[in-house]
Design brief:
The complex is a heterodimer of chains A (480) and B (286).
Chain A lengths: L1 H20 L3 H43 L1 H21 L1 E10 L6 H20 L3 E2 L5 E10 L4 H12 L6 E3 L4 H13 L3 E4 L15 E3 L9 H10 L5 E7 L2 H16 L3 E8 L7 H10 L3 E5 L2 H13 L6 E4 L19 E4 L9 H7 L2 E2 L4 H11 L7 H20 L4 H9 L2 E4 L2 E4 L16 E7 L3 E7 L14
Parallel strand pairs in A: 1-3, 1-4, 4-5, 5-6, 7-8, 7-9, 9-10, 12-13
Antiparallel strand pairs in A: 2-3, 11-15, 13-14, 15-16
Helix pairs in contact in A: 2-3, 2-5, 4-13, 5-6, 13-14
Chain B lengths: L1 H31 L6 H19 L3 H24 L7 H23 L12 E4 L2 E4 H23 L1 H11 L1 H6 L4 H24 L9 H15 L4 H21 L4 H16 L11
Antiparallel strand pairs in B: 1-2
Classes of the chains: A alpha/beta (480), B mainly alpha (286).
């Protein structure tokens, strides 16, 4: 009887455990609300204090002017001289705030992104900082925390970055989900944030004004793969979409599905899986039953590489296999033969050949290092590790900010924002231009994806297979 | 219908592994009425054990399992003496909290040592085909090993002196002590066996799924469902219930989106608690 009585205990603790495993959205909302309230209160207090001080100063100044004009004039002159001297002599330290997923499921991609960003910061500081026209040298200082790949932590930490740490500019965390949480905070505190590693369109379609996207948005992630498929084999009819149930992946596949239907493909399977999935057996059996010619989908690194591995182990005969995010990562090669023939959209590859000449041809401004210079600097800084596109994205986010500060000739947020709105730039990462309409302000409209495939040239290596003008090899079709 | 059969076989093979994970949980409950909330992290440690022995020392994963099993047994004994022994006669909440603390300690240390990045044991036995059904080698071997482990546990419990002691302590600890059974050592041994089973299941899972130090949590939840389904304290029931859960996981996705799997699993869990709390398979002792 005692044992039976204990069963509710088991139930209780299982539910507690289940709750711990969940995203804890309620908690997130609560925390955000609390933090906001606190901060707002502080801000109000600060402003009040400032206003009082200002008014007091004004009053004093007025009185001084009335009484002895000479003294007042002297004081003003002195103060002005002091201020100018301070600014001209030196330097202004700008705080760049961001979080890194040092732990949790976004760890691999986030580490690359943060390494890239850090490299940009180090190279700017090593070159003596960013010099403005009045001689001010802007140096960079990073403030960063581990967000544990967790939305709650992102909200807490970006609030902290914006308030306690007084960050001048923010860079997004990695992944669309985390960035969506950070973007709201950035907007709330009026901080300019360059997002990288965050492709989901919807973040930029909610009326934000201070958030700018470096990546090609999700809605254009897989459309090129469908173009490639159609050009390679016009006879293909059946396409399956299997994707992670996350903000980013669903955004990608829904746009791709619409596009596939417009091209006349039959969608034989369209199904999502839980982000924590490790067993793709049920999907693979479904795929086998629906016999598609092409599979598109995936999500992030861990699930994508697992999916590719299990698909290969099950010997599924499919001609064309495109996964999001995972294939361009150098670690994807650890899958061995399972990686062969897998195609993936990439924001950037080191073979990409954007140069100052191609910028001139396209009538765009050129800024920053070439791909080769970036790769050399990166491998030098990180013990020979090759940069992934996440790393390039991190560096590019920095470049965008740097160019905006130069263009604005100031670190004033409004001036930088105006410079970003007007930006039309070519970097080693590609074309950068932001949507400035109210409906989707900050959405990237200049950059576009390239598609890589793992091929065997005496060892697995990535080749660019699309777009045709940038291709380094023909597509391996059908997939072995 | 091939599709259904293939999914069912995949699920059943996985079910054997769920079965031995749950056996570990249910054994500890059966012997000492302790719900071991450090079960999940120990499964994860089993995964990391196989991963490091294989990738750092190059030892075959199935041989690595032997070391992982021995490590699990010792770790279980250690956890018993450090965390459980002093509160074994205290109210149930104390042992729950004690093992939950161990859970937090392992996860904390594990995250510091291994980070939370995904790992993958780069090992495959390929696959083979029966008719139109493809079976993965690693899953088949895992199922066979799980059967051996179950058989071994059964022989140990029913044919060895220590097994008899364990059963005696399960039935009535006071009476067993009066008969000269060293109950403290037997409790430590049982706890060790429970964690050993958890570690073995983790090691087997590592041969076919990627994992992180946090990956044990979902298998712990499955172990709860399986244990309740099979009847808490009933190791053989746990294996059968593991197969049922595996079959459910295999078959549901053929008719519904896979996101429904956990929903239906936990609905089943609550139904069993409400209508048949002693589990589907009755224990001998109850």
């Amino acid at each position: 009887m005692k044992k039976r009585w204990m069963l509710p205990f088991v139930l209780l603790f299982v539910l507690v455990l289940a709750a711990c495993n969940g995203n804890g959205d309620d908690t997130a909302a609560d925390t955000a609300a609390d933090t906001t309230a606190d901060t707002a209160a502080e801000a109000t207090a600060d402003t009040a204090a400032d206003t009082t001080a200002d008014t007091a100063a004004d009053t004093t100044a007025d009185t001084a002017a009335d009484t002895t004009a000479d003294t007042a004039a002297d004081t003003t002159a002195d103060t002005a001289a002091d201020t100018t001297a301070d600014t001209a002599a030196g330097s202004e330290e700008v705080i760049i705030g961001f979080t890194a997923s040092q732990t949790g499921k976004q760890n691999v991609s986030s580490t690359g992104q943060v390494n890239g960003l850090q490299l940009w910061m180090d190279s700017v500081n090593a070159a003596g900082g960013i010099e403005l026209s009045d001689g001010t040298i802007v140096t960079l200082k990073s403030v960063t925390y581990d967000d544990e790949s967790n939305t709650d932590r992102v909200q807490e930490l970006y609030t902290r970055l914006a308030t306690e740490d007084d960050a001048n500019f923010l860079i997004s965390p990695y992944s669309s989900g985390l960035t969506a949480a950070a973007a709201v905070i950035a907007e709330q505190y009026g901080k300019v944030m360059i997002t990288t590693g965050a492709a989901s369109d919807s973040t930029y379609q909610q009326g934000l004004t201070t958030v700018y996207q470096a990546y090609t948005p999700a809605s254009r992630y897989l459309t090129g793969a469908l173009d490639l498929l159609q050009q390679t084999d016009p006879d293909v009819e059946k396409v399956a979409f299997v994707y992670e149930n996350s903000k980013f992946s669903t955004g990608v596949v829904e746009a791709a599905k619409t596009y596939a239907e417009s091209l006349g493909y039959e969608i034989v399977l369209f199904e999502g899986y839980d982000p924590d999935s490790t067993d793709f057996g049920p999907f693979i059996n479904k795929i086998e039953a629906s016999a598609p010619d092409a599979i598109l989908g995936g999500g992030h690194f861990q699930d994508g590489s697992t999916f590719a591995r299990q698909l290969a182990e099950k010997n599924i005969d499919v001609k064309f296999f495109t996964l999001l995010v995972a294939p361009p990562e150098p670690d994807f090669a650890d899958l061995g033969q399972a990686a062969l023939g897998v195609i993936g959209p990439s924001q950037w590859e080191k073979q990409a050949t954007f140069t100052s000449e191609s910028a001139a041809e396209a009538g765009l401004a050129w800024f920053g290092p070439t791909s080769t210079e970036f790769v050399d600097a990166y491998t030098g800084a990180y013990g020979g590790d090759e940069p992934s596109y996440h790393a390039a994205g991190g560096y590019a986010a920095g470049l965008i900010l740097q160019q905006a500060i130069l263009e604005a000739d100031s670190t004033d947020p409004d001036a930088v924002k105006a410079a970003l709105d007007g930006m039309d730039l070519l970097t080693f990462f590609g074309h950068i231009k932001f949507d400035t309409t109210e409906a989707s302000h900050g959405l990237q409209i200049g950059h576009s994806m390239i598609y890589i495939q793992w091929q065997d040239d005496g060892g697995l290596m990535k080749q660019v297979v699309w777009p045709a003008e940038g291709a380094t090899a023909d597509v391996l079709y059908p997939k072995p | 219908m091939d599709f259904l059969l293939a999914s069912l076989i995949d699920g059943l093979l996985l079910g054997f592994v769920y079965g031995i994970a749950a056996m570990g949980l249910t054994l500890i409950w059966g012997v000492m009425n302790v719900i071991n909330l450090s079960h999940g992290p120990i499964i994860a440690l089993g995964m990391f054990g196989v991963y490091y022995i294989f990738s750092a020392l190059g030892i075959h994963p199935y041989l690595a399992l032997i070391a992982v099993a021995a490590g699990g047994l010792l770790l279980g004994g250690l956890i018993y003496f450090v965390a459980v022994h002093r509160v074994i006669d205290a109210p149930h909440l104390s042992t729950l909290l004690a093992t939950f603390s161990v859970n937090m300690i392992i996860i904390g240390l594990g995250t510091a040592a291994f980070s939370a990045s995904p790992r993958n044991v780069d090992f495959t036995l390929g696959s083979f085909e029966i008719g139109s059904i493809t079976i993965l080698g690693t899953r088949l071997v895992a199922a066979i090993l799980a059967m051996f482990v179950t058989g071994g546990l059964y022989l140990f419990l029913y044919k060895s002196r220590y097994g008899r002691y364990i059963r005696a302590v399960t039935d009535n600890r006071d009476a067993a002590e009066l008969m000269g059974v060293p109950s403290v050592r037997i409790l430590a041994l049982s706890f060790g066996l429970g964690t050993m089973l958890a570690a073995i299941s983790g090691g087997l899972i590592a041969t076919f799924f990627p994992f992180t130090i946090l990956a044990g949590g979902s298998y712990e939840l499955k172990s709860f469902v399986v244990s309740v389904l099979g009847g808490l304290g009933n190791p053989v029931g746990a294996l059968l219930a593991g197969l049922i859960l595996g079959a459910i996981e295999g078959i549901i996705p053929t008719v519904l989106p896979t996101t429904w799997v956990p929903v239906l699993e936990f609905v089943l869990f609550i139904l069993i608690l409400l209508f048949r709390p002693q589990g589907l398979f009755k224990t001998k002792s109850s």
